Here is the input.
Amino acid sequence: MNRPARLRRVIGAGGPVFAEPWEARAFAMAVSLHERGLYTWSEWADALASRIKASPAHADSNVGDTYYQHWLDALEDLLARKGIGSAETARWRAAWQHAADRTPHGAPIELQAEDFDPAHNAGTGRQ
Here is the structure.
């Protein structure tokens, strides 16, 4: 089945597929990297299942507000394990997210030492 037919099937299910653009990007990256042969779909499924099982909110892992976060986290884990990404890159991304969360809308985001505190990332699987 070609890509447009697959997309029509997903979109035709009714309603928005993704709540936010970043969810679509996480989905697209996971599928694209698999299609390029960076990992098998079984490896991907195992990484995603591990992330969901490790989540403190395991019971809510399939609701829209956490599901694609698990996709993104699993993708980072899998790429780091394969030597494609790094824990350092993930650490910077987590710090950036913390800084963005504490910054008022419209204000410039500035990284501070506190943004790199692993305690801020407790429960997210990020170090």
Q: What stands out?
A: The chain has two domains: 18-85, 86-127. The radius of gyration is 16 Å. Residues 5 and 11 are 10 Å apart (CA to CA).
